[in-house]
Amino acid sequence: MAARLGLFLAFLCFVLPSLTLGAVLQQRATCTPASHGEAGVDDVPAITEAIQSCGNGGIILIPAGIVFQLGSTLSFAGCSGCEMQIEGTLKLTDDLDAWNGVKAIVLLDDITGATIHSVTGSGLLDGNGVPYWTEFNEDSSYSRPTLVYIDGGSDITIENLLVRNAPNVFMSAAGDATNIHYSGLTMQAIPSNGVTPKNTDGFDIGPASQVTITNVIVDNQDDCVAFKGGANFVTVTDISCSGSHGLSVGSLGEGTSGNTVTNIFVSGATMTSSTKATGIKLWDGSSGHGVATVSNVTFNDITVDSSDYAAQIQVCYESTGTCVPSTHQLTDIVFSNFKGTTSGAEGSVVANLDCPADGTCGIIFESFEVNPPSGSAEILCSNVPSSADITCDGAASG
Questions:
Q1: Contact, 236 vs 223, CB < 8 A?
Q2: Are 346 and 311 in contact (CB under 8 A)?
Q3: Which residues, if any, are the signal sequence (predicted)?
Q4: Which of 36, 314, 345, 357 could link 41 by a cystine bridge, Cβ 3.0 to 4.6 Å?
């Protein structure tokens, strides 16, 4: 028995180091595409070839110090469990004609398993927005692409990148995508030469589920995060938004379908110089409009820093004439642990809550300590029940 045990132990001592060494040597395939190094020359074909070669669990490396021009949609077709490591720059070309009416610059269409990130933190995704904002300002029919569009699929992570000057929306997750994770992103839409960014939502989420957004900084001129119809189980933590239209549910109710947002949790947000920190945008009850259902939404631990409103509910969103009463259903909507100071743009009003006249308004306020720059805080309310636990100082608008 002792001899057999000795032989067994000797076998382990010989085999285990060999197995460990084999595991180390079995590395993932890595493909490094080459850039033309010339502005306006499309480098997407080279990146696409790398995805085709290394997309099955491998790594596509965008090397540091090199700019790759995106003159056509960069599709992740062929990626399954792949990783794009961006240490250099991916930059949109100036070809306005080529991009008019195109859905996305970077497209993940029904992809299962993908990571887009920078290991060193040097990676830049540059949307080159200025010529596109300029064109849209001159011609509102010009249709600009979303910078990164996830359409269906699952298990996708985008993290640790600088993302700058999206021509339109920065990040979209739709098509019933699931298990989508954004983290460690700095996203900036920077006005230049008098050109103001337009429609640069940070995140448009929905229809999608099991989405997390954490540790991100957004500096833009539209919604910081928009929870669109079909958004379900979305968690946002540790986010800073500057210059935005806030953390927004909606807009909902413009059409007759896709008007449900459920199970949203936001905690730890700093909202600076925003038109509102948090809010819900609903169309009115006019013919052709739908009924929205918004339930189990929590805005918690919100710091208001010179934003116009701390909270806003609109039931006449985009109305130009008579606002027709609606039957939208709002249930279990919580605004808790708010603090800070508004901009004073709305005088002493810190919240404007216009609930649906013929629907439900299941909202509650807890520890809402927001003040105007001077005077006493006022909250405007319409169709808000006493169960909301707030003191209303007049009728709401919007």
A1: no
A2: no
A3: 1-22
A4: 36
Pick from 48, 102, 54: which is nearest to 76 by CA? 48
Distance set, CA 284 to CA 359, 382, 395 (Å): 11, 14, 17
Q: How far apart are CA 133 and CA 130, in angstroms?
A: 5
**Quick check: is 245 catalytic?**
yes
pTM: predicted TM-score of the whole model, two decimal places: 0.93
Residues facing 396 on adjacent strands = none
Residue 251, both tokens: 């807009």
Instruction: Using DSSP, state whether 245 is helix, strand or coil.
Output: coil
CA distance linking residue 291 with residue 278, whole number of Å: 21
Q: 3-class SS at 206?
A: coil
Report the distance separating Cα 115 and Cα 104, nearest Å.
18
Q: Are 398 and 373 in contact (CB under 8 A)?
A: no
Pair 244, 202: CB distance under 8 Å: yes
pLDDT tens string 144-166: 999 999 999 999 999 999 999 99
Give a three-class secondary structure readout of 2-40: HHHHHHHHHHHHHHHHHHHHHHHHCCCCEECCCCCCCCC
Token output for 274: 């925003």
Find all residues with CB under 8 Å of 335, minimum gap 6, and list them: 278, 299, 302, 311, 363, 364, 365, 366, 368
Running DSSP on this structure, what letter comes out for residue 390? Answer: -
Annotated catalytic residue: which of 36, 181, 245, 328? Answer: 245
Instruction: Please state, in angstroms and rounded to a whole number, the distance separating the CA atoms of residues 297 and 206.
Output: 15
